[in-house]
Amino acid sequence: LANPNLKWETTDGIDFGIDAALFQSRVALTADYYYKKTRDLLYNLPVPATSGFSTSLQNIGSLQNRGFELSISTTNLTGALGWQTTLNLAFNRNKVLDLGGDTLVVGNLRPVYKDLDGDGKDSPDDRRILGNAEPKYTGGLNNRFTFRNFELSVFLQWSVGNKIYNINRSLLTAADGSVNQLEDVMTGGPGIPDPKIGNTFESRESNLFVENGSYLRGKNLRLAYNVPTAWLDAIHLKGMTRLQLYISAQNFFTVTNYTGYDPEISEYATTNLAQGIDFGTYPQVRQITFGFTAGF
Question: I need a labelling partner for 118 at 20 to 30 A (CA). Which of 15, 103, 111, 139 fits?
Fold first, then answer.
């Protein structure tokens, strides 16, 4: 459906940053604050079917994105024993400022359980925001140690304050007798009655499926050994200038209260309207790798 008034989205923003090196470059600091406001968002609005179309692409609404990012790198020890540390922190806040008129349909109504406004009816005023898919902050910490020919690096990653809507739990506790179910169906759990066949579990959207998505993850661990050049010469590998043997582990531990497979979810990552949803997201693999790198 043609829209002669359609135009590009517009974003205005400011960004302040600082880069500094202190104590003879043993400490490097990068700090950045940003603020962006986007208006005339492109969105497919529902239109009367008599037009011959179900939606029309229009410019509606606005949103803002602001945040602060910090990176600190330090050289803690030098010499025979070396130690370097890098810390990254990111605080981001997204806010929808306007989504057009009252006739805008973003999604279906959410059935509710509790009469929160006390009017005795199941009405839209009973709905409440149960959480934010955006974390309060995220971070990463990398430490690199060197001792003679050995190198050890450890990278930790975390997210704090975000909520996850666990669709998997609502589907895997329905007790309809036709698919695999969670152990809670047999042993009992929040919102689950005595086990019996016949779809005994109410799977409507509620705080029963909204969980804390905070986590701490051991993202990468790597231990390497640099073979001395004299050893390479002794075994007649004079054309090889460098040989490093290593073992590494990815996702080697995760600390979280989230009951799903993986708190680091990516389902519907391409849309801003369905963030923080876990619906069959494949968990990240715990992987151990042995290998070598060589230079000639």
Answer: 103
